[in-house]
């Protein structure tokens, strides 16, 4: 993998720079990175406010303020409290969870193709939900949460068990391949069940794109602690991920306990991605794209990538959700669709223009 | 990422057979030959079983006589040769094509998660076929096939063009491929969400890939194309394997990096296009077969044509054998069979303490 665009005029022999281990301290200056972090925080606040204001019926900031702090049962106030705020909060939680889990899994596997689903989280959740619909006859999205959660965690445990048999346990490549294998099997079983019954297929095609609309805040008491624990664990892993990027041997000699570092990263990814898929369904692309873009801006130091991603991803998710609400005059687009429609062109432009850093 | 793959055993570490005659010497790695032989036998065995099962059951002996004896029961010959044989051969052709295509892309991108999908071909052809089936309202085999072929080719060209800036770097190719693929998948999902469940299911069934309703006319074309493409693939293998060592080393060894990458991409995409046009985008064979083959042969690179092709054929024939029993598109079974086998291989490897 290469890091820089070759100088113009280079003919066939494009030099490959030496394997780029993240060099903590390399990348933009500290002040630039602080500025980027603050910009991301600012963006997030703007998006959160917009997300409460904008929709099929736009509200003024004053109305929103009153609805939050001087509530008076009017339609607009009820709408803010019952629809817009829950939606925004769910967007914040799932966005942060998706972004950080994506950054963690990419750093951990050192694979730019890795997304939070690589350890089988989404596949496990989808399989469990499909099972609930096809065999047990559930039908409402709010009932799926527990199945999704169970499926996500159950499958990650299996993947980790398979990935850690043998002498050198839990290495990223083995975990990735184990995840790919289990993801495939679950995906096959899921489509088998879905293609056998029109009802199941119909429910699954809507659940499967991912949406943060129409969820109630009742799930937050469960989701918040899980995501909070995942974020804490993930952010604390930044140092050991920096060390692991230099190779296992060097990391060990720098005092990293490999087994502990690996288990905590896998646990964090599972908590974050598993909760997010349970709450909002499998939202693609956020966990894949945001860490890449953040890395191009802040450089290879995980101590910066992880926090900035945690802030930037929910901002992106909320922005996509707002676009989805605005773009169609009637009805709305699920956020899981808009993330790719909006994000893909941005990603292509960025990867062509910037000097991109691989992992 | 090659950095993480196990170190290769090179030189005298691998037992070889050497064939010398008429001033020519050919070296065969013993393990590869044995693996290929076993895989071929597996394909043949499963093939005979598959030809004998269905609403008319035949014993292996009856199948063989129907195949090779022109005086056999004409009814058995009709069922075996005219009805069931094309489907079996299609499974072999498609499996081989997908596996070689996957091997090429995994080598090109130096990534075990690499597959023709990274260049967006599958999502492009799925989008193309969905447009034909839902917006133009045609379920005709030729219309859908050309829709998928057009969609896939346009997408692949688009990805290659967008990734091209002072040559195509694997990393940029991957990122652009992901982005374009995700974009198209979202568009397809939007289409699928806007139609009736029955219509959406029809498209999804095509999207899973199915070998139903294929005859000798399509097979003849597909087989000829496959042979041509495999010969092309054989010529790009050597420079691509050298590129796995890094551009500097490969160029020093006399490889034209840019041309080799372009040729590799072209052959890989053409192989996928062949399968997608014929039977729809069958998932996972391209991803899993090269990895399975490399673990079976314990080779240094995933880019070995014969083992990969035979593994792909074996996976797809097995999957189709099961798919016919449970009445599902073969693509659905492929992922299960391939996934379980990959998992089993991983377990076995760890037990043996090898990497």
UniProtKB/TrEMBL annotation, chain A:
Matches recorded under InterPro entries: ABC_BtuC-like, ABC_transptr_permease_BtuC
Name listed for the protein in its UniProt record: Iron chelate uptake ABC transporter family permease subunit
Annotated SUPFAM superfamilies: ABC transporter involved in vitamin B12 uptake, BtuC
Membrane-traversing stretches: 34-56, 88-105, 117-138, 144-163, 175-195, 222-247, 333-351
Region Disordered, annotated ranges: 1-27
Gene3D superfamilies the record matches: ABC transporter involved in vitamin B12 uptake, BtuC
Family recorded in the similarity comment: Belongs to the binding-protein-dependent transport system permease family. FecCD subfamily.
Native source organism of the sequence: Streptomyces pyxinae
Chief place of localization: membrane
A Pfam family per the record: FecCD
Alphabetical UniProt keywords: Cell membrane, Membrane, Transmembrane, Transmembrane helix, Transport
Subcellular locations according to the entry: Cell membrane
Topological type in the membrane: Multi-pass membrane protein
TrEMBL record, chain B:
Subcellular location: Cell membrane
Source taxon at top rank: Bacteria
SUPFAM superfamilies: ABC transporter involved in vitamin B12 uptake, BtuC
A Pfam entry, by short name: FecCD
Topology with respect to the bilayer: Multi-pass membrane protein
Transmembrane residue ranges: 33-52, 88-106, 118-136, 142-161, 173-193, 223-241, 261-289, 328-347
CDD domains, sorted: TM_ABC_iron-siderophores_like
Keywords associated with the record: Cell membrane, Membrane, Transmembrane, Transmembrane helix, Transport
Similarity section: Belongs to the binding-protein-dependent transport system permease family. FecCD subfamily.
Protein name: Iron chelate uptake ABC transporter family permease subunit
Organism of derivation: Streptomyces pyxinae
């Amino acid at each position: 993998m290469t890091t820089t665009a070759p100088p113009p005029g280079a003919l066939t022999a494009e030099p490959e720079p030496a394997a780029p281990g993240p060099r903590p301290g390399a990348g933009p200056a500290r002040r630039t990175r602080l500025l980027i972090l603050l910009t991301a925080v600012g963006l997030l606040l703007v998006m959160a406010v917009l997300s409460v204001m904008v929709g099929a019926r736009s509200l003024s900031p004053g109305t929103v303020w009153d609805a939050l702090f001087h509530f008076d049962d009017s339609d607009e106030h009820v709408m803010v409290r019952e629809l817009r705020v829950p939606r925004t909060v769910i967007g914040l939680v799932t966005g942060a969870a998706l972004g950080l889990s994506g950054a963690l899994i990419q750093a951990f596997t050192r694979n730019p193709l890795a997304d939070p689903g690589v350890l089988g989280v989404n596949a496990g959740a989808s399989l469990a939900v499909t099972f609930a619909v096809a065999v047990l006859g559930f039908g409402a999205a709010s009932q799926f949460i527990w199945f999704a959660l169970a499926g996500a965690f159950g499958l990650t445990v299996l993947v980790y068990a398979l990935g850690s048999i043998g002498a050198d346990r839990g290495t990223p490549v083995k975990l990735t391949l184990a995840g790919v294998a289990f993801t495939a099997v679950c995906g096959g079983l899921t489509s088998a069940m879905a293609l056998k019954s029109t009802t199941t297929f119909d429910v699954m095609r809507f659940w499967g794109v991912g949406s943060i609309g129409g969820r109630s805040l009742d799930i937050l008491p469960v989701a918040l602690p899980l995501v909070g624990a995942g974020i804490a664990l993930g952010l604390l892993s930044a140092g050991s991920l920096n060390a692991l990027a230099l190779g296992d041997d060097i990391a060990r000699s720098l005092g990293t306990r490999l087994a502990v570092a690996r288990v905590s990263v896998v646990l964090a990814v599972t908590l974050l991605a598993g909760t997010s898929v349970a709450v909002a369904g499998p939202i693609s692309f956020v966990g894949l794209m945001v860490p890449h873009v953040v890395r191009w801006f802040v450089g290879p130091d995980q101590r910066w990538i992880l926090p900035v991603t945690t802030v930037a991803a929910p901002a992106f998710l909320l922005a996509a959700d707002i676009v989805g609400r605005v773009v169609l005059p009637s009805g709305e687009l699920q956020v899981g669709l808009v993330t790719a429609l909006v994000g893909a062109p941005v990603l292509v432009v960025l990867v062509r223009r910037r000097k991109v850093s691989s992992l | 990422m090659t950095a993480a793959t196990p170190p290769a055993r090179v030189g005298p570490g691998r037992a070889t057979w050497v064939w010398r005659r008429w001033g020519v010497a050919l070296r065969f790695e013993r393990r590869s030959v044995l693996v290929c032989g076993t895989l071929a036998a597996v394909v043949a065995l499963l093939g005979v079983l598959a030809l004998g099962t269905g609403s008319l059951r035949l014993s292996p002996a009856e199948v063989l006589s129907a195949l090779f004896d022109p005086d056999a029961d004409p009814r058995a010959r009709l069922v075996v040769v005219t009805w069931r044989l094309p489907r079996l051969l299609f499974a072999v052709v498609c499996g081989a094509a997908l596996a070689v295509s996957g091997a090429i892309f995994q080598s090109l991108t130096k990534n075990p998660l690499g597959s023709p999908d990274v260049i967006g071909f599958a999502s492009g052809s799925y989008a193309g076929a969905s447009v034909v089936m839902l917006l133009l309202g045609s379920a005709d085999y030729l219309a859908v096939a050309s829709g998928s072929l057009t969609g896939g080719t346009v997408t692949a060209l688009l990805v290659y063009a967008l990734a091209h800036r002072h040559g195509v770097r694997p990393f940029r190719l991957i990122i652009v491929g992901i982005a374009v693929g995700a974009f198209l998948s979202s568009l397809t999902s939007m289409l699928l969400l806007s139609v009736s469940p029955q219509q959406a299911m029809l498209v999804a069934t095509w999207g899973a890939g199915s070998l139903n309703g294929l005859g000798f006319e399509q097979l003849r074309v597909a087989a000829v194309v496959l042979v041509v493409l495999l010969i092309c693939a054989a010529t790009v293998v050597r420079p691509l394997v050298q590129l796995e060592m890094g551009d500097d080393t490969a160029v020093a060894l006399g490889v034209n990096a840019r041309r080799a990458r372009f040729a590799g991409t072209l052959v890989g995409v053409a192989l996928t296009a062949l399968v997608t046009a014929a039977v729809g985008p069958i998932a996972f064979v391209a991803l899993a077969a090269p990895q399975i083959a490399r673990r079976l042969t314990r080779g240094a690179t995933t880019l070995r044509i014969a083992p990969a092709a035979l593994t792909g054929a074996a996976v797809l024939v097995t999957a189709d054998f099961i798919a016919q029993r449970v009445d599902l598109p073969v693509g659905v079974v492929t992922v299960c069979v391939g996934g379980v086998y990959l998992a089993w291989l991983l377990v076995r490897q760890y037990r043996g303490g090898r990497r």
